[in-house]
Amino acid sequence: MGPVNWLAVFLAAALAVAIGLLWNGRLSRTGGALQQGNAERGGNYLLIAFVFLIGSVMLGHNFARIGVETLSVKPWLYFMQSGGIAMAFVIPAVWLTHLRNRTEPARGVMDCLFWLVAYLAMGLVFWALG
Which residues contact 7 (CB under 8 A, 6 or more apart)? Predict the structure, then answer.
């Protein structure tokens, strides 16, 4: 196992949060905040940043296990791994939550698409800094 690229871990998480701010703020129909709730101002953003940091640490560990040699020969693995984690674990959890809460399907699709874009962007950071 190679070393974890910690710079890529933190930058990937920061990029995912930035995408979330744009996606759920300026790009959404309502122009609302990243997450509605009763927490203090900024509290939700710290929680979201922590969640993305956990995902980014997991990706960084995963890429370290694959190894620099393999990733340099097969760079598409950055996107297969990051997108695959989003499609296999994150998106089904988000979709099931939307089904349980009976939110409109378009909102569920947009949220699932956000998570896919965010994870692919994290893969892009690891590829660029790999």
Answer: 129
Residue owning tokens 């710079």:
7
The structure's pTM equals 0.86
Contact indicator for 65, 1 with CB cutoff of 8 Å: yes
Domain that holds residue 96: 6-129
Q: Please tell me the distance from the alpha carbon of residue 116 to that of residue 30, in angstroms, as a whole number.
A: 21
Domains in the chain, number: 1
User: Can you read off the two tokens belonging to residue 27?
Assistant: 């790009």
In a domain, 76, yes or no: yes
Q: What is the mean pLDDT of each run of 10 residues along the chain (130 residues)?
A: 92 96 71 48 77 96 96 96 97 95 91 96 96
